[in-house]
Amino acid sequence: MTPRDPARQGRTDPRLTRPQPGAAYPPDRRTVLRRAGLTGLGLAGAGLVGSGTWAAGDTVAAAGTAPSNAPLRIGYLPITDAAPLLVGHARGLFAQEGAPTAAPVLFRSWSSLCEAFVSAEVDAIHLLMPLAFHLRYGLGADARVTAWNHVNGSALTVAPEIREVAQLAGRTVAVPAWWSLHNVLLQRLLREAGLRPVIRRAPGPRETALVVMSPADMLPALHQRTISGFAVADPFNAAAAARGVGRTLRFLGDVWRQHACCVTVLRGDLVDGDPGRTEAFLRGLVRAQAWAREHRAQAAPLLADGLLPQPEPVILRALTDHADAAVAVRHPEWAGQLIDFAPYPYPGFTARLLEEMRETLVDAPRDFLDGLDAARVHEDLVVTGPVRAAMETLGGPSAFGLDGYERTEQLDG
C-alpha cells in the first residue's frame, strides 16, 4: 500500500477568516500557510508539502478528533523527544487506560507535523513548547498543552575543531524551528559569548548566522561543513559524536535546568469534549514516562524496533550516557546531559519562556506575543488537572524525581 501524504488529507472550505486565539481551527492546509504565516515558523524548506509516513491500513478522519470508538491518532518526529508517546503505544499503556491509539505516524519535519495537527488529521503530538505558543496564539489553532512530554534531551553540537561558543563567530548554526527552545537557548549562549545572532545574511566577525533546518538534514550538513553546528534534540547529537562528525559543546539542560523542550499537545475538542478519554490518555502517558525513566536500557531497543530510524546504540547513548558530558557540562548536579521525563507543566516555566521568546530573534511573525500576559497565559494554554491526577496515581511528583508542584526556574548562560 502506498504511504499517504497526511498533509493532503482532510481538506475543508478554503474560504478562511483569521480565527480568534483558542478558536476551533480545522482549515485548509494551504490557507493556513498563506493567511496565518505557517511558513514564517521557520519551517519552510523542511517539508512543507508534508512528509508523514503512514502505516498500511491506517485511516484518517476528514476533520476533528477521532470518534470516541476510534483509536486516537498520534503524530511524532523521529527523535527521542517522542519516547513517551511511542512507549505508551508500544507497551499498550494507552489502551490499558481506556484510550487506545492507532499506529503512531512519523513526520520528517515540524512543519508537516504542525500542518497535520492544524488540519485535524492527528489528535496528539509532541511539540516544541514555543511552537505551541505560536499555534494557539499566532494561528488560533485548537491546541492545548496537557503535559510536559520530556525535559532536557537537547544539545549544541559543533564541528570537532570548535572548543568554545565564541569560535562560532562568522559561522552558521542550524536550529529546528525559530519557535524552539533550541533557538531560545542557543541565542542565550551566543549573547553570553559576545556574539550577535543574525538571519538571512552572512555573519560579520562578531556575529553568528542562524538558519532553520530539518533535524534529519543537520548531520549531513555538519559533515559537509555547510553549517558549523546545530542545536537540536537527541539522538542527532549522540549520532554526531558517535560518527566523529561533531562534538557536543553544551547540553541545553545545562543552560536551563530541567526545561521542557517538547510538550504533549492535544486537540482542544478532545480535551473539552471528551474529558474521560483525555484523562485516560494522560494516565497512559504518565505511566509511559515513569517506565521510560526507570528502564532506559530497555527503552532503546523498543524505540529502535521500527519507531525511530536511528540505530539502537545511538538511541541508547542518548537515553543513558554521553561520553563527552565531562567537557560539556557546567552544572553536573542538574544532570542536564540526559533526557528525562517529568510530566508536570510548571506555571513559572510557561511565564519565563514567554519572556525569553520576546528576547529571541526569529524570522517569523511575532506580533502575537505582544498581547500575552505572562502571569495568565499558563491558565489559558495549559491544562494541568488531568496530568496532575494521573501523577498522583503513581505516587505524585516524587515518582518523577520532583519535589512538588512548584519550583523556581534556574538558567545559566
How is this structure best summarized?
With 413 residues, the protein is α/β, with parallel strands linked by helices.
Describe this structure in words.
- It is a single chain.
- This protein has 413 residues and is of the alpha/beta class.
- The chain has two domains: 72-151 and 256-398, D-Maltodextrin-Binding Protein, domain 2; 153-252, Periplasmic binding protein-like II (D-Maltodextrin-Binding Protein, domain 2, 3-Layer(aba) Sandwich), CATH 3.40.190.
- Helix content is 34%, strand content 12%.
- The protein contains 16 helices and eleven strands.
- Helix 2 crosses helix 10, helix 10 crosses helix 16 (385-392) and helix 11 runs antiparallel to helix 12.
- The longest helix is centred in the C-terminal third of the chain and has 20 residues, at 275-294.
- It is globular and about 60 Å long.
- Residues 1-62 have low confidence and may be disordered.
- Keywords: Cell inner membrane, Cell membrane, Membrane, Transport.
- This is ABC transporter substrate-binding protein.
- InterPro entries: NrtA/CpmA_ABC-bd_dom, TAT_signal.
- Belongs to the CmpA/NrtA family.
> Which range does the strand content fall in?
5-15%
CATH superfamily of the largest domain: Periplasmic binding protein-like II
CATH class of the largest domain: Alpha Beta
Class of secondary structure makeup: alpha/beta
Count of individual helical segments: 16
How would the global form be characterised?
globular
